[in-house]
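Question (not urgent): is this output format expected?
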Amino acid sequence: MSDRVFLAHLRDQAEFVAGDGCHLRELLHPAQQPVQIGYSLAHAYIDVGCRTADHWLEQSEVYYIIAGHGTMVLDGQAHAIEAGSYYYIPPRCSQWLRNDGEQCLEFLCIVEPPWTAAGETITE
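Got this back:
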């Protein structure tokens, strides 16, 4: 690990479809970049008319909505979200997110401790 400044750009990070179905770019992850942090940070989006699969993580998450609007369902309770909304999701909380708008629903995800495939369960 390094204790140096780390600089990068979103366009330089590989995009992939995550297990829950959103499009994701891992921005910071201590297993992938030379950073000493206790969390991972990802940029994600959901296309118009789409939603993520119902899932939960062993880790806690914070979502910050950058653009668009939609519905976030946490443990079966629906919440309207829009650009500027943010929320904390505790470990093992059932969740899914739907894009209800006419533009891409774009958001940041902070997962603490850092995201791992073993810590995510897709329930549908």
